[in-house]
Design brief:
- The complex is a heterodimer of chains A (486) and B (459).
- Chain A contains twelve helices and 18 strands.
- Chain A has helices spanning 2-15, 20-44, 73-85, 122-136, 138-141, 168-181, 190-196, 220-233, 295-301, 380-394, 441-458, 472-476; strands spanning 63-69, 94-98, 114-115, 159-163, 185-188, 207-211, 216-217, 237-240, 242-254, 260-272, 279-289, 319-330, 341-343, 348-352, 358-363, 402-414, 421-424, 431-435.
- Chain A starts with a helix and ends in a 10-residue tail after the last helix.
- Chain B contains 20 helices and two strands.
- Chain B has one domain.
- Chain B starts with a helix and ends in a 12-residue tail after the last helix.
- Chain B has 459 residues and is mainly alpha-helical.
- Chain B has a two-stranded antiparallel sheet with strand order 1-2.
- The chains are: A alpha/beta (486), B mainly alpha (459).
- Chain A binds chain B through residues 45-47, 51-52, 56, 61-63, 65, 86-88, 90-93, 251, 253, 263-265, 267-268, 283-286, 424, 429-430, 455-460, and chain B through 138-140, 143-144, 147-148, 151, 278, 280, 337-339, 341-345, 347, 418-427.
- Chain A: It comes from Camelus ferus.
- Chain A: Its cofactor is FAD.
- Chain A: It is a single-pass membrane protein.
- Chain A: It holds the Pfam family DAO.
Chain lengths: 486, 459
């Protein structure tokens, strides 16, 4: 400021117009140099960020209390609740390691984005109920100062599950459980179906359950960005990298029955930077595995599953990526604005997308038709051969439609019982899981994040008891089977 | 004094020439023997200092601190064994050499009879400490911590050099033994005020005084365990020792020059104690508690009564042992959970009951439980401050209460409650760690039986 005052005073007074340009140029140069010198001085004196060795700003820090592997909606949700439930601000240092910051293959953003309470397990229903309350009040939970409010584009249009004669009894039982937990679901006969949704062909439908409230779909990308923004404002560190190694220390211990077990504790995570051999060992106290479709690989890195099969040591994390296709089509004579997300007993489903007569949907393939999860290429013949006939049979208006685009995404598929794995591993004592939700992870993410944060901070589940979802069920063989899977 | 200094210097070749499996045992055992020798200096006839030579002497003030310094070296070596176990052999030897060098310089500092020699050694102790913090600290922030530590202390002590040279020029000698008989009152003038400030600021930064304490949490938190131990136990006391020596020749100016520092200390001890209540990092909590205790010492030294001098010396020794023990306990936690956050390592009492006992004893000592010497020191300081001004009792009483609050908070947070799942398989306590805690606690408890040996010059 002094410089500017000097320049103005001298320029006008002493040198006049003739030397004005030259003066202007030389002043700018001097200006630049002075600010450079100032910056240099500021970086050297204590308090600056000068590192005399070499620049490591692209690497994660050398120490972090919690390392969350995977920065999708579940990882960010765990980070959010860890920061929210810590008793004092800044108590825990959290680091989220995400391999791909464009989220090009992440299940979160490729998801259809539906949320429903129509599950058969009470825990699933409670998880979804809390999550929908979170989503409805998203701007109270994820408010960041000076940032615009989030618009999740939540369409509360509900889910409509159709059941044939075979599945009608199960559906009735499920609806009873759902009502007990507090979900607002109603059962409809084919007659009522035809009255409410005249575009459905009710042939073969014995019973339908329709979610009246708190069900629908939303934009997962907005949720992800909102979480990311909020979590960064709460002080969570992000780094781009891939976890390549866990360094752990193990201990032989004896159980009360005299059996010997080896307990492991991960104390260092090696994070490798993209396109480089550089890696940073991050010293950590807790690792949270929310790597989604790749959780199985991360678990193997930690040594889970290395042992004789049939023992707890040899029980692998049964989560693997399964590719699912989603197709977007345009149908002017389609069901219109009041269409819920319809789930056919044959496995096909669709929902309205936007207000321009676009619909998106797909179908879960049978075991023989499972596509190869190596890449995310779309098989358009699958739509022609399998999905379209089912859709056209259920909704006659869909006989004429035009497919506009399609994409594929991964389910982090739990081959054991298609429900999530939550909580610590019994042997690798400081690895916590929040993965394996097989297609309904996005809708349960807020509640699962809170459960994992409670487990980490308190040692037990406090609000929703997710003990049926612990890892030990894989060894004990107790399936927490979910029947309403799309 | 050479009988202590030479063996300490010879510890260095001992380390370098030891066999690989004796590299920890040799220095530890020999330094324990050296500390036994230094105990003989504690046998003080009052008012007469024991003059070993023209250069070294020990009196009732420097002897307790000397014994503390020599006692601490074997403890530092015992504490460092675990985190250095993975380093290559030469690096281990360099680390031990740094510790021994620091020890030698500290011994000479505490026994120096001439002030310029004291100053040179005072500055020299910065170098091994800086090396230990910046090379062997565990996180990237240690470089920042090292620069804070170095520059704060350096810039505080350069005026001291100028002042000492000036005094040497005007009075002809800076030897303690001569100065105490020759003492002239310092007249009231601007230049004398500056002289007073120049003399005192170095030690204020070192203590640290509340406004100049920024380097301490950083340095303590980022330093490895031996660095934290020596910083908390001995290096802070260098400041106290220097102040105690220099205030004898800075009268009567101290009477009113000391007011700002007294206010800062009185306020600062409550502030830093309150900060401790909100800390989540265990080492930061102990670091701030050091600032709080040292603020009491500053108040005591600046009041300049016989009782307060006794309190200051007692508190210095007591705090040295207690703080060092707390840092060792925090380090055992850190080695197991790899995190310094308190909430991630809770409920340890059920898993490690003996360590819980050490935690309990250390926390009780920290909150000045009778009959420990911590209480004696604090009591003397509180009483003399009350006679200086009645209002200080409110502040000091509040400080004692908050100290009790955060010590118990630290104890309950780490020991009680339900333990979290991920500390299921922490390693049980090593005998080495139990020895370390016992070697801290035993002197502390035994001194409460005979505290007069640490009560300093005015007993």
């Amino acid at each position: 400021m002094l410089r500017r005052a000097l320049w103005l005073g001298w320029g006008r007074g002493l040198l006049g117009l003739g030397l004005g340009t030259r003066r202007g140029v030389s002043t700018l140069e001097w200006d630049g140099k002075v600010s450079e010198i100032k910056k240099k001085i500021q970086s050297v004196i204590p308090g600056g960020a000068w590192n005399p060795l070499y620049d490591t700003s692209h690497l994660p820090p050398e120490h972090s209390d919690v390392v969350i592997v995977g920065g999708g909606v579940l990882g960010l949700s765990v980070a959010y609740w860890l920061k929210r439930l810590e008793k004092q601000r800044g108590a825990i240092k959290v680091l989220v390691v995400e391999r791909d910051h464009t989220y090009s293959q992440a299940s979160t953003v490729l998801s259809v984005g539906g949320i429903r309470q129509q599950f058969s397990l009470p825990e699933n229903i409670q998880l979804s109920l809390f999550s929908v309350e979170f989503l409805r009040n998203i701007n109270e939970y994820l408010a960041v100062v000076d940032d615009p409010p989030l618009d999740l584009q939540f369409n509360p249009s509900g889910y409509l599950f159709l059941a044939s004669e075979k599945g009608a009894a199960t559906m009735e039982n499920n609806v009873k459980v759902q009502r007990q937990e507090g979900a607002k679901v109603c059962l409809m006969s084919p007659e009522q179906l035809r009255n409410k949704f005249p575009w459905i062909n009710t042939e073969g439908v014995a019973l339908a359950s329709y979610g009246l409230e708190n069900e629908g779909w939303f934009d997962p990308w907005s949720l992800l960005q909102g979480l990311r923004r909020k979590v960064q404002s709460m002080g969570v560190l992000f780094c781009q990298g891939e976890v390549t190694r866990f360094v752990s220390s193990s201990d032989r211990m004896e159980t009360p029955s005299g059996e010997e077990v080896i307990l492991k504790k991960i104390h260092e995570v090696h994070v490798k930077v993209d396109h480089s051999q550089e890696y940073q060992p991050v010293e950590c106290a807790i690792v949270v595995n929310t790597a989604g479709a790749w959780s199985g690989q991360i678990a193997e890195l930690a040594g889970i599953g290395k042992g004789p099969p049939g023992t707890l040591q040899g029980t692998k994390l049964p989560v693997e990526p399964r590719k699912r296709y989603v197709y977007l089509w345009h149908c002017p004579q389609g069901p219109g604005l009041e269409a819920p997300l319809l789930a056919d007993p044959s496995g096909a489903y669709f929902r309205r997308d936007g207000l321009g007569n676009n619909y998106l949907g797909g179908c879960s393939p049978t075991a023989e038709e499972e596509p190869d999860p190596g890449n995310l290429e779309v098989d358009h013949d699958f739509f022609q051969d399998k999905v379209w006939p089912l859709l056209a049979q259920r909704v006659p208006a869909f006989e004429t439609l035009k497919v506009k685009s399609a994409w594929a995404g991964y389910y982090d598929y739990n081959t054991f019982d298609q429900n999530g794995v939550v909580g610590p591993h019994p042997l690798v004592v400081n690895m916590y899981f929040a993965t394996g939700f097989s297609g309904h992870g996005l809708q349960q993410a807020p509640a699962v994040g809170r459960a994992v944060a409670e487990m980490v901070l308190e040692g037990h589940f406090q609000t929703i008891d997710l003990s049926p979802f612990l890892f030990s069920r894989f060894y004990l063989g107790e399936k927490a089977q979910e029947h309403c899977i799309i | 004094m050479l009988k202590i200094i030479f063996p300490s210097i010879m510890l260095m070749p001992l380390t370098w020439l030891s066999k690989n499996n004796m590299i920890w045992i040799n220095p530890t055992v020999y330094s324990l023997l050296i500390s036994l020798i230094s105990l003989s200096t504690l046998n003080q006839y009052s008012d007469i200092s024991t003059n070993f030579s023209l250069l070294f002497f020990s009196d009732a003030l420097s002897a307790p601190l000397l014994v503390l310094t020599t006692w601490l070296l074997p403890l530092m070596l015992i504490a460092s064994q675990s985190h250095l176990s993975k380093e290559p052999l030469t690096r281990k030897k360099v680390y031990i050499t740094m510790l021994i060098l620091l020890q030698v310089l500290l011994i000479m500092t505490f026994t120096a009879s001439e002030l310029i020699m004291f100053y040179v050694l005072f500055e020299a102790t910065l170098v091994p400490t800086l090396i230990i913090i910046t090379r062997w600290g565990s996180q990237a922030e240690r470089l920042n911590a090292g620069s804070y530590f170095l520059f704060y202390t350096l810039s505080g002590s350069l005026p001291l050099l100028v002042a000492l040279v000036y005094i040497q020029n005007t009075t002809g000698s800076l030897n303690f033994l001569i100065m105490q008989y020759w003492n002239q009152p310092l007249m009231d003038s601007w230049s004398n005020a500056l002289l007073w400030l120049a003399c005192m600021m170095a030690f204020m930064v070192k203590m640290p005084l509340y406004g100049l304490h920024l380097w301490l949490p950083k340095a303590h938190v980022e330093a490895p365990i031996a660095g934290s131990m020596v910083l908390a136990a001995v290096l802070l006391k260098l400041g106290g020792y220097g102040m105690l020596r220099l205030t004898t020749m800075l009268n009567p100016l101290t009477e009113y020059m000391a007011y700002p520092f007294l206010m800062l200390s009185l306020w600062g001890m409550i502030m830093t104690s309150s900060i401790c209540l909100r800390q989540t990092d265990l080492k930061a909590l102990i670091a701030y508690s050091s600032v709080s205790h040292m603020a009491l010492v500053i108040v005591a030294i600046l009041i300049q009564t016989p009782w307060s001098y006794m309190g200051a010396t007692t508190l210095m020794v007591a705090h040295g042992l207690t703080s060092s023990m707390l840092f060792c306990l925090a380090n055992t936690n850190y080695e197991r959970t790899h995190s310094r956050t308190m909430i991630l390592a809770r409920g340890l009492q059920t898993l490690l009951p003996l360590m819980a006992m050490w935690w309990l004893l250390a926390s009780l000592a920290n909150l000045a439980l009778p009959p420990t010497i911590n209480l004696l020191g604090e009591l003397f300081v509180v009483m003399s401050a009350f006679s200086w001004s009645n209002i200080t009792i409110i502040l000091m009483g509040a400080n004692m209460m908050i100290t009790a609050l955060y010590s118990l908070y630290m104890l309950i947070m780490t020991q009680r409650g339900k333990h979290t799942h991920h500390i299921n398989n922490i390693k049980p306590t090593y005998t080495r760690e139990n020895t370390l805690m016992a070697l801290h606690m035993l002197p502390l408890l035994m001194l409460s039986l005979n505290p007069k040996i640490i009560m300093g010059l005015t007993y």
